[in-house]
Write a structure and sequence with these properties.
By secondary structure, the chain is of the alpha+beta class. It is about 45% helix and about 20% strand.
């Protein structure tokens, strides 16, 4: 597997060392022994030292973004295929409950059941039927909450603030996050999203995969939105450009007709 010049520190170091070799060679071959030669020697030595320093930094390489972007699409596509084969056609709904909890439902059609008990996968009553699944962002959110002391404010006005904190400052997978709220629509624009290659893989399979069982980042944004609003939200669609790295997630709040947990007493897992 070839990976040549993918590290910017390595590229810069390589260029600086080559420049140092060139400068020192010219100064040696001309042998003028004047101020010009001295300048060339000084520039050559400085370039060599800077190049070695840059090459040293290149030894600590983080994950390759192009490869890391392809870690999540397989799971998203697989779960979406299973749900589709089982007859589900609804889009993911994220419902907050309790102090910090959020659960994800995939409705069979458009309506959701009115209640759910325990950790049952299939939730059904006279109101509707849905699958209750673990969000793909659940492990990441738990890690951020436990190890990074992430606190989600219960204010929709601060959604952009917490989204930028997570995606830009902690995970470093985006350059910025803009939130626009218009009527019943919530638009989150993730600028400079470094894992956009994975989104294109999922979109190539079917755009429905992104709304039925979103990837960890879109699920995380939907979860943060539900927590900030203290109200259920549904994934409407995602927009992934053929070129560029801007990802747009469209959500809508659900005002009624959502399931609520039933307390079945001690021993309940709800």
């Amino acid at each position: 597997m070839r990976r040549v010049f993918t590290d910017p520190y390595y590229r810069a170091g390589f260029v600086l060392v080559l420049a140092a070799v060139g400068l020192l060679s010219v100064a040696t071959m001309t042998d003028r022994r004047d101020l010009t030669s001295a300048t060339l020697y000084l520039c050559g030595v400085a370039s060599f030292i800077a190049g070695v320093f840059s090459l040293t930094l290149s030894s600590e390489r983080g994950p390759q973004v192009g490869h890391a972007a392809l870690l999540a699409p397989g799971g998203t596509i697989a779960v979406s295929r299973i749900c589709s084969d089982l007859g589900l056609s609804g889009d993911a709904v994220f419902i907050p409950w309790g102090a910090e909890g959020v659960t994800q439902f995939i409705p069979v059609q458009e309506t959701l059941p009115s209640t759910f008990v325990g950790d049952n996968l299939v939730v059904a009553d006279d109101s509707g039927c849905a699958f209750r699944v673990v969000s793909s962002a659940a492990p990441l959110l738990e890690h951020l909450t436990t190890d990074h002391s992430l606190t989600v404010p219960g204010e929709i006005a601060r959604l952009g603030e917490v989204a930028r904190e997570v995606l830009v400052e902690v995970l470093e997978v985006a350059d910025g996050v803009d939130v626009t709220i218009t009527g019943d629509s919530i638009l989150l624009n993730v600028r400079g999203y470094r894992l956009i290659a994975g989104c294109r893989v999922v979109q190539a399979e079917s755009p429905k995969c992104c709304t039925m069982y979103p990837c960890p980042v879109c699920s995380l944004l939907a979860t943060l939105t539900a927590r900030c609003m203290a109200a259920p939200v549904q994934v409407v669609r995602t927009s992934v450009p053929k070129r560029g790295r801007d990802l747009t997630l469209f959500l809508t709040p659900i005002k009624g007709g959502v399931p609520s947990p039933i307390d079945v007493g001690p021993g309940s897992s709800v």
